[in-house]
Amino acid sequence: MSDPLPLPPLRQALPDLASWVAFFSAAEIPVLAETADHLELMRANEDAADANNLGEMMGSDPLMSLKVLAHVAQQRAGQASSHVQTDAETVIAALVLMGITPFFRAFGPQAVVEERLALQPWALEGLQRVLRRADRAAHMALSFAVHRLDPDAPVIHSAALLHDFAEMLMWVHAPELAQEMRRRQLADPQLRSAEVQRQVLNIELADLERALLREWHLPELLQNIIDDTREHDPQVQCVKLAIRVARHTADGWDNEAVPDDVCEIADLLKLGNQATLNLLHEFD
Predict the structure, then answer these.
(1) Residue 114 burial (CB < 10 Å; 0-12/13-18/19+)?
(2) Which of 85, 211, 233, 204 is nearest to 145 (CA)?
(3) CB-based burial, 178-192: b 16+ in 10 Å, e otherwise
(4) Which residues contact residue 20 at a Cβ distance below 8 angstroms, ignoring those fewer than 6 apart?
(5) Residue 78 pLDDT more than 90?
(6) pLDDT of 85
(7) Which listed residue, 81, 106, 110, 259, has the most CB atoms within 10 A of its CB?
(8) Taking the model in full, what pTM does it have?
């Protein structure tokens, strides 16, 4: 998959949701250097690559995962019989549908996020903070799903990993705006994320994510699990609560919001609060 040409970083917010969707639809998505390096090593020995080892390698990189899922979804949306085909809801499933040789043909050497942000180390640090949170949340969401014997556990893991992809893309393509949002929230911890997003970006990132997922034709199940507005869906709760506790414990487990998180997770998992807290520490 060849990337579009890199766009200059945005320094001023776009006026509305449609403008943001158009911008990110045309923007490249660079990936982690580790992913790009491993991809080239596997390309050199394509016969040894399969969907499982490729998928596991890319499964910890939300940006590469997003690119692969969007590529396959858009391809299949353009096929007349796509409505009777199986959707790719995980990276491994996408690779199985594509085939290994077509994958390497579609995805050449990748743009690297560490290179793009080399002159803005503070932006790279901001992105890495979101990536660490996504990785922790994905493991917790998967653990919740497995505990609940949910057959869609791998999809729930994928949804949690991708849940905050719009925030990741902001650090890549509009780092000064992302930094301003972080500055305001550090200055006022009571300021809700949605409110600061409207102040700085003229939109809420959740709305942007839903719009981009539709624009890229990602599978309906994946879209639904990422959609926080479906708050009574247990699969959505797995992801939402995993994201929340990962955010609240990013700097330690003494955040005053953690007890409320534990109560809600305990209710989801049908456990007592102390047993839930013990499990959370094990999952982490």
Answers:
(1) middle
(2) 233
(3) bbbbbeeeeeeeeee
(4) 14, 201, 203, 208, 211
(5) no
(6) 54
(7) 110
(8) 0.90
Q: How far apart are CA 31 and CA 91, in angstroms?
A: 15
CA atoms within 13 A on the CB side of 189: 5
Residues 6+ apart with CB under 8 A from 118: 124
| 31 φ, ψ (degrees, to nearest 5) | -120, 175
Helix, strand or coil, per DSSP, at residue 255: coil
Query: What whole-number distance in Å separates Cα of residue 155 and Cα of residue 146?
Result: 11
Q: Tell me which amino acid residue 137 is.
A: A
**Distance between CA atoms of 13 and 164, rounded to whole angstroms?**
19
Q: Which residues touch 87 (CB under 8 Å, ≥6 apart)?
A: 73, 76, 219, 220, 221, 222
Place of tokens 């479906």: 230
User: Within 13 Å, how many C-alpha atoms sit on residue 135's CB side?
Assistant: 12
* Contact (CB, 8 A) for 69 and 222: yes
State residue 256 phi and psi, 5-degree precision.
Answer: -70, -15
Asked if the model's pLDDT at residue 84 lies above 70, the reply is no
Could you give the residue ranges of the DSSP H alpha helices within 45-120? 51-58, 62-77, 91-98, 100-106, 113-116
- pLDDT, mean of residues 25-37: 95
